[in-house]
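P.,

For your records, the input lines for the assembly:
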Amino acid sequence: MNEEEKKALVELLYQLADDDLLVSYRGSEWLGLVPHIEEDVAYSSITQNTMGHAAIFYQILEELGEGNADHLAHARPATERKNAILLEDVNGPGHWLYNEPRYDWAFTVVRNYFYEITKKIKIDSLTKSKYEPLAQVAVKINTETLYHLMHWRTWFYQLINAEGEARNRMEQAIEKVWKDLGGLLSLGPNREGIVAAGLIESEDVLKERFNSEIKEVFNTLNLDFHGELKMERGDGRAGVHTDDLAEALASLSEVYNLNPTVPW
Amino acid sequence: MEASHSLIETEAWRQLDTVCDPEIDTVTIIDLGMVDKVLVSDNKVSVDLLPTFLGCPALGIIKENVIKAIKLIDEVKEVEVNYIKNPPWTSDRITSKGREGLKVYGIAPPPLKLENDGTWKVECPYCGSPYHSVENIFGPSACRSILYCKNCKNPYEAMKPISTMN
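Structure tokens returned:
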């Protein structure tokens, strides 16, 4: 692997790691607040797995000389993060600790369902990655992602089919999520380098797969297709972020930052 | 030298068969199919393990327990344990002894395959009945689901089928 290819690999790994880290963090904030107890068991299990996926991507970055994996997860400032903007958004108004959380379950179901669809598309492509360790990890992650996708699909279908308030809120959530959905499949400013290095297929191919999959879902559920994928607030892969990210990082790193030298 | 290497290796495997799942003390990591390789060079033993689920918090505990167990061998001065990325752990790696051990603990072993309609063929670890409802695909740990036996009316857990062929 030459220098250019390694740079592309590192960049892609940060995107994958930061995406899984942020979506897991937002998931962990729901602990004890979800609609029912079985969901608490399920969502926290999914969140734990996904945090494990983030950890293995940070681990590969460590093996490539990027520094300690814990440090990469906890101590990088918001400006260096490569996650999609959609994943840093708060779950809704309020906060689990400081004031009454009034989190939005419809938004959470839509965000997670679309995230798992795009993740599966990327992971499938990564199983053929030229970088062997990444391809191997993708095969493993795929076995777990299947269950996550199944879970969110169940919620998505049931709430849409419930009609009334549930369907209305789901439609509003889809509209909101769609505005930044393109960020999930963005490969960032170095997209050409990443694809040229044979690490993953091109954005166009990934988006094409997403569109054909989501069109089928929307057809079945009689939902309006929202057209081309958008990134209205910008591309997180290029370091564009919102205040929500800084807030999330401060909270998730609070204990780590008390004493970064303590072993975990 | 060769002879003592193979003796240490045999002893290492014996020690590994004493390291149980931290939550399920009726199955060892060998039963679970987690041990990929044991290498002996001079007084050093290296063990390659496969992570069951990437986010499983037991992985760190298992690693520590493997180091402790191997260090009990007199000739061994150094132990190295690595979680490797390939091959991926799948639930069909659990041995038949492991499947029995899970039942003893009250956990149904993972179905060997998914049925064509996506359902699982699982038998209640208490009464053997195949009639159940899946209460939650996710359970108290990443690898287990929660089921309910329609025959003996007991709730029970089952190991999730994990396969690369889905």
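Two observations worth noting. Chain A has one domain: 3-258. The interface with chain B takes residues 38, 41-42, 45-46, 48-53, 55-56, 133, 136-137, 139-144, 146-147, 150-151 of chain A (CB under 8 Å).

Regards
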